[in-house]
Amino acid sequence: MKINETGRINAINPYQRNAETQRQEQLKKSTRKDEVSISDEAIKLLQAQKSGEVDAERASRIESLKQQVSAGTYQVDAAKLAASLAPYFKQSSEN
Q: Which family does it belong to (predicted)?
Protein backbone atom coordinates (compact mmCIF):
# COMPACT_ATOMS: atom_id res chain seq x y z
CA MET A 1 0.00 0.00 0.00
CA LYS A 2 1.34 3.38 -1.00
CA ILE A 3 0.31 6.58 0.76
CA ASN A 4 0.58 9.72 -1.30
CA GLU A 5 1.21 13.22 0.00
CA THR A 6 2.06 12.46 3.60
CA GLY A 7 2.89 16.12 4.19
CA ARG A 8 -0.79 17.09 3.91
CA ILE A 9 -1.77 15.47 7.18
CA ASN A 10 -1.21 18.69 9.14
CA ALA A 11 -2.01 21.05 6.28
CA ILE A 12 -4.58 23.77 6.95
CA ASN A 13 -7.28 24.59 4.54
CA PRO A 14 -6.36 27.95 2.89
CA TYR A 15 -9.89 29.25 3.49
CA GLN A 16 -9.61 28.43 7.18
CA ARG A 17 -6.23 30.19 7.34
CA ASN A 18 -7.70 33.27 5.64
CA ALA A 19 -10.64 33.33 8.07
CA GLU A 20 -8.26 33.09 11.03
CA THR A 21 -6.18 36.05 9.83
CA GLN A 22 -9.35 38.09 9.36
CA ARG A 23 -10.43 37.29 12.94
CA GLN A 24 -7.04 38.36 14.26
CA GLU A 25 -7.21 41.65 12.32
CA GLN A 26 -10.68 42.36 13.70
CA LEU A 27 -9.42 41.73 17.24
CA LYS A 28 -6.61 44.21 16.69
CA LYS A 29 -9.08 46.84 15.47
CA SER A 30 -11.53 46.26 18.31
CA THR A 31 -8.88 46.63 21.01
CA ARG A 32 -8.22 50.23 20.02
CA LYS A 33 -8.81 52.58 22.96
CA ASP A 34 -10.64 55.90 23.14
CA GLU A 35 -8.88 59.03 24.32
CA VAL A 36 -10.16 61.88 26.44
CA SER A 37 -8.53 65.26 26.82
CA ILE A 38 -9.37 67.84 29.47
CA SER A 39 -8.79 71.52 28.77
CA ASP A 40 -6.54 73.65 30.94
CA GLU A 41 -9.54 75.67 32.16
CA ALA A 42 -11.34 72.51 33.28
CA ILE A 43 -8.23 71.34 35.15
CA LYS A 44 -8.01 74.70 36.94
CA LEU A 45 -11.68 74.47 37.91
CA LEU A 46 -11.22 70.96 39.27
CA GLN A 47 -8.19 72.01 41.26
CA ALA A 48 -10.08 74.99 42.71
CA GLN A 49 -12.96 72.74 43.72
CA LYS A 50 -10.65 70.22 45.35
CA SER A 51 -8.67 72.82 47.25
CA GLY A 52 -11.85 74.45 48.56
CA GLU A 53 -11.16 77.85 47.04
CA VAL A 54 -14.62 79.34 47.08
CA ASP A 55 -15.20 83.04 47.12
CA ALA A 56 -16.84 83.51 50.51
CA GLU A 57 -18.59 86.71 49.47
CA ARG A 58 -20.14 85.08 46.44
CA ALA A 59 -21.22 82.02 48.43
CA SER A 60 -22.91 84.19 51.04
CA ARG A 61 -24.65 86.24 48.31
CA ILE A 62 -25.97 83.08 46.65
CA GLU A 63 -27.19 81.71 49.97
CA SER A 64 -28.92 85.01 50.73
CA LEU A 65 -30.65 84.98 47.33
CA LYS A 66 -31.77 81.38 47.82
CA GLN A 67 -33.32 82.27 51.17
CA GLN A 68 -35.08 85.32 49.70
CA VAL A 69 -36.51 83.32 46.80
CA SER A 70 -37.70 80.49 49.04
CA ALA A 71 -39.30 83.00 51.46
CA GLY A 72 -40.91 84.93 48.60
CA THR A 73 -39.25 88.22 49.57
CA TYR A 74 -36.93 88.55 46.57
CA GLN A 75 -37.69 91.72 44.58
CA VAL A 76 -36.45 92.26 41.03
CA ASP A 77 -34.99 95.71 40.38
CA ALA A 78 -36.71 96.70 37.12
CA ALA A 79 -34.22 99.48 36.33
CA LYS A 80 -31.22 97.11 36.54
CA LEU A 81 -33.04 94.50 34.47
CA ALA A 82 -33.90 97.04 31.76
CA ALA A 83 -30.33 98.37 31.71
CA SER A 84 -28.90 94.91 31.25
CA LEU A 85 -31.40 94.01 28.50
CA ALA A 86 -31.08 97.27 26.55
CA PRO A 87 -27.86 96.33 24.69
CA TYR A 88 -29.43 93.05 23.57
CA PHE A 89 -32.48 94.79 22.08
CA LYS A 90 -30.30 97.43 20.41
CA GLN A 91 -28.28 94.68 18.68
CA SER A 92 -31.32 92.74 17.55
CA SER A 93 -33.06 95.85 16.16
CA GLU A 94 -29.96 96.79 14.13
CA ASN A 95 -29.82 93.38 12.42
A: Belongs to the FlgM family.
Is the overall model pTM greater than 0.85, yes or no?
Answer: no
Q: In sequence order, which ranges of the chain are alpha helices (DSSP H)?
A: 14-30, 40-51, 56-71, 78-94
Cβ 74 vs Cβ 68: under 8 Å: yes
Query: 67 is in which domain, residue-wise?
Result: 56-87
Contact assessment for residue 74 and residue 65, using Cβ atoms and an 8 Å cutoff: yes
Q: CA–CA separation, 73 vs 16, rounded Å? A: 79
In the prediction, which pLDDT does 44 show?
Answer: 87
Q: What is the number of structural domains in the chain?
A: 1
State the CB neighbour count (10 A cutoff) for residue 57.
Answer: 8
Q: Is residue 60 part of a domain?
A: yes
